[in-house]
Design goal:
94 residues, mainly alpha
């Protein structure tokens, strides 16, 4: 889904939920689910580092969205060296 912390705050941040989050995500116009992870790709998810947990705005030790928007990858690389990056993706024909 595209991430946001409130109305008119969406940028190009994408996150992956590891469970059914329909009870709390997608209810606001700025929360836009864009797809699902194919079962054949679950092994890839297991390799994503989750050390930092959620973003700071949701109480985790992960990055602050505001700083990502202002400082970009320099902030992420210096403050979150174990952060995993998606380098490529491709659509699947469901």
């Amino acid at each position: 889904a595209f991430a946001a912390v409130g109305e008119n705050t969406r940028r190009s941040t994408i996150f992956i939920c590891t469970g059914d989050m329909s009870h709390c995500l997608g209810r606001q116009s700025w929360e836009t689910p864009i797809g699902a992870v194919a079962e054949s790709s679950l092994e890839v998810l297991e390799r994503i580092d989750t050390t930092y947990g959620d973003i700071a705005e949701f109480g985790g030790e992960g990055p602050e969205t505001r700083r990502i928007n202002v400082e970009g990858n320099a902030y992420l690389r210096s403050s979150f060296p174990r952060l995993s990056y998606i380098l490529r993706a491709r659509p699947l024909d469901w």
